[in-house]
Write a structure and sequence with these properties.
Elements (H helix, E strand, L loop, with lengths): L2 E12 L2 E12 L3 E5 L6 H9 L6 E6 L2 E2 L5 H7 L1 E4 L11 H12 L7 H4 L3 H13 L15 H13 L5 E5 L7 H14 L4 E5 L3 H7 L2 E6 L2 E6 L1 H5 L2 H8 L9
Parallel strand pairs: 3-8, 3-9, 6-7, 7-8
Antiparallel strand pairs: 1-2, 1-4, 4-5, 9-10
Length: about 250
């Protein structure tokens, strides 16, 4: 498998705090690559840099051979890199279908101000319905987004990320706040999606990570301390000391 995403010596500082420190990361086409680490490890900062929400202080990011280091988020999205957020941001008064149609519209480069068109335009509605079907929300299409459960909001957010037919998904804590049944449903959904897409998954749920990941990278204080197959990470003494032992299940970073 060739590398779809290549990260070289990526660094980001906030004043005296080093958020990401000389990160090297390769994600192969077709793999689900998980990034784990304790609180404050720099995981969300890394995702923000990859999506273009934060610009790196130094280092390079290549996606499918393109240098995207300085590209704004919408241009990265146009190349096929889609992000879902740790905190859901949905239009709760709109229908489930409207939310996804808006995402299709936004990825096509149109303004959100023309959202009314999204309610009637077939070119937006059909891919929106297809994305909802992929996450199991097609029967909720006409519901207001406010009527969905927390887990269904996560599914809707995933449908919005899928709306632009991306090559790769950046997922930031998709299991956050989910109960056991909802988590199991999300794991099944991601397992199905990994057959079609490359996925970079930031997640604190270790059970989900080890169930899904082809490879795992471990961040501690913004630095990569290990990267490898799940068994290699599970048996790595430095990883156990830094994270997997008493800190197993630690949260966001």
């Amino acid at each position: 498998m060739s590398a779809l995403l290549q990260v070289e010596n990526l660094a980001k500082r906030f004043g005296g705090i080093i958020a990401t420190d000389d990160i090297v990361l390769n994600v192969a086409a077709g793999e689900l690559h998980a990034v784990i680490g304790p609180n404050g490890a720099g995981k969300t900062t890394l995702i923000a840099q990859l999506s273009g929400q934060l610009m790196a202080d130094s280092g390079r990011i290549h996606f499918e051979g393109h240098d995207i280091t300085r590209l704004p988020p919408y241009k990265r999205s146009a190349l096929g890199l889609a992000r879902s957020f740790q905190i859901t941001s949905l239009f709760l008064d709109f229908s489930v279908l409207d939310n996804v149609a808006l995402a299709v519209q936004a990825r096509a480069g149109h303004s959100f101000h023309f959202w009314r068109d999204a309610r009637t335009e077939t070119a937006l509605r059909e891919p929106a319905r297809a994305a909802l079907a992929r996450v199991g929300l097609d029967k909720r299409a006409d519901w207001p987004a406010s009527a969905l459960s927390h887990g269904e909001h996560r599914q809707l957010e995933l449908a919005m990320a899928l709306a632009g037919s991306p090559r790769m998904l950046l997922l930031d804590e998709p299991m956050a706040g989910l109960g056991p049944e909802e988590s199991a449903r999300m794991v099944d959904m991601l397992r199905a999606l990994k057959k079609e897409l490359t996925i970079l998954l930031v997640e604190h749920d270790m059970e989900a990570v080890f169930a899904l990941a082809d490879r795992i990278t471990v961040l501690v204080y913004g630095r990569v301390i290990a990267s490898g197959k799940p068994d290699e990470i599970r048996n790595n003494a430095a990883v156990r000391d830094a994270y997997l032992g008493e800190n197993e299940g630690a949260g966001h970073g």
